[in-house]
Amino acid sequence: MGIWKILLKHFAELHDPRVERTREHLLEEILLMTVAAVLSGAGSWNEIKGYGKVKRLWFGIKGKRLKAGWDNDYLLQLLGI
């Protein structure tokens, strides 16, 4: 099992504090993409968002779960910052 699948498995075990009916993206996928972006040199929320847009197909994430509609406020709120 690759490192990304291991991380995704662990992130899936985390409690998602968001209201279920308002979730557009899986928490574990957002966390995985954020970690990957930072490890790849992303230094701002805009760079993390850009990384997510470019790499979503590489990660096998499709459809509205990781759409281009991410914004900085969404990431900040989700990560509790």
Strand content: under 5%
Question: Average pLDDT across residues?
Answer: 76
Task: Specify the number of helices.
Answer: 4
Query: Which outline best applies?
Result: globular
How far is the N terminus from the C terminus?
31 Å
Order of helices and strands: HHHH
Can you tell me the number of structural domains? 1
Q: Percent of residues in helical segments? A: 40-55%
Biggest sheet statistics: none
Structural class: mainly alpha
Uncertain ranges: 63-69
Q: How many β strands by DSSP?
A: 0
Give the C-alpha Rg: 12 Å
Explain what you see:
With 81 residues, the chain is an all-alpha fold. It has one domain. The protein has 4 helices and no strands.
Index terms:
mainly alpha; 81 residues
Topology of this protein?
Blueprint: H1 3-12, H2 27-39, H3 45-55, H4 72-79
Helix pairs in contact: 1-2, 2-3
